[in-house]
Write a structure and sequence with these properties.
single chain, 287 residues, alpha/beta, six-stranded parallel β-sheet, 13 strands, binds alpha-D-ribofuranose
């Protein structure tokens, strides 16, 4: 099995549940509050590790108590933290989440996640085997994302780029990633309306996740891999579960269609638990 390196964000999620979102300028009463582990990078690392992969997390935490919470959680989930760097005089990343109307709204404050540097990526690139898989998202600096894509391409390393949340990057770089996995909103932000025709330009490379409608890619024709019906408690982290599971499936040399069925299954299970990592399945749950 190939090693999986997740280069990305680690955060503490501060989650409020409310009956509805407040309107602009309005204060409303919430129903509950909890703190839990999150950050798209850490979520994807935990997803892959729970499904049995060897996972290394690469990124930055602050020097506060949240850093301890983040690192302990990664270790508990058997994610290697040798490339997690603490930044002094810096807060750890946080995400401020409101759950309402069976959906979520999120504001991410990058803090230490904004300190991930090319120097840290170089350390990884010195030691990484070309057989590994790199998983990356958009919650670290854009210049570093572009650097990771270039360096991985030069080394011939398989990359899965989850362009979430949307930021504008040079489209020419997409030809240098092995797979990219926008959701419906992100694909519109990247290319405008109508991905169904454009997706043919990225055969077996662009995978559009469609929530409860599954995932779509192009291989001589448009192929949809349907999702599995699930009871929804919280959709936060479902996309991260999908990406972590996709990396695991590809690390085990599954064909793309089989890998997407595996990833869909994991994501469907994940929405049954509260918090980004609360419902993420272990390998035994996938049988
Ligand atoms: O994808 C879900 C994640 O997005 C949350 O855990 C939160 O940290 C935000 O980054």
């Amino acid at each position: 099995m190939k090693d999986i390196y997740v280069i990305g964000s680690m955060s503490v999620d501060l989650v409020t549940q409310a009956k509805r979102l407040p309107k602009k300028g309005e204060t409303i009463l919430g129903e509950s509050f909890f703190m839990t582990n999150g950050g798209k990078g850490a979520n994807q690392a935990v997803s892959a590790a729970r499904l049995g992969a060897n996972v290394r997390m690469v990124g930055c935490v602050g020097d506060d108590s949240f850093a301890e919470m983040i690192v302990n959680n990664l270790k508990e989930n058997k994610v290697n933290v040798d490339y997690v760097e603490p930044i002094t005089h810096c807060a750890s990343g946080t995400a401020h989440i409101t759950l309402a109307d069976h959906d979520n709204s999120i504001i991410v404050v990058p803090s230490a996640n904004g300190k991930v540097s090319e120097a840290l990526v170089d350390k990884v690139m010195e030691n990484i085997s070309d057989e590994s898989i790199i998983l990356l998202q958009n919650e670290i600096p854009k210049s570093v994302i572009e650097y990771i894509i270039e360096k991985s391409f030069e080394k011939g390393i398989t990359t899965i780029y989850n362009p979430a949340p949307y930021i504008e990057i040079d489209k020419n770089l997409l030809s240098k990633v092995s797979y990219f996995t926008p959701n419906e909103t992100e694909v519109k932000d990247m290319f405008g309306e109508g991905f169904e025709t454009l997706i043919a330009e990225f055969p077996n490379q662009m995978i559009v996740t469609l929530g409860d409608k599954g995932a779509t890619y192009y291989d001589e024709s448009l192929i949809n891999i349907p999702s599995i019906k699930a009871k929804v408690v919280d959709t936060t982290g479902a996309g991260d579960t999908f990406n972590g599971a996709l990396a695991v499936a590809l690390s085990e040399d599954m064909a793309l269609s089989e890998a997407l069925q595996f990833a869909n299954r994991a994501a469907s299970i994940s929405v049954g638990g509260l918090g980004a990592q609360g419902g993420m399945p272990y390998r035994k749950d996938m049988e």
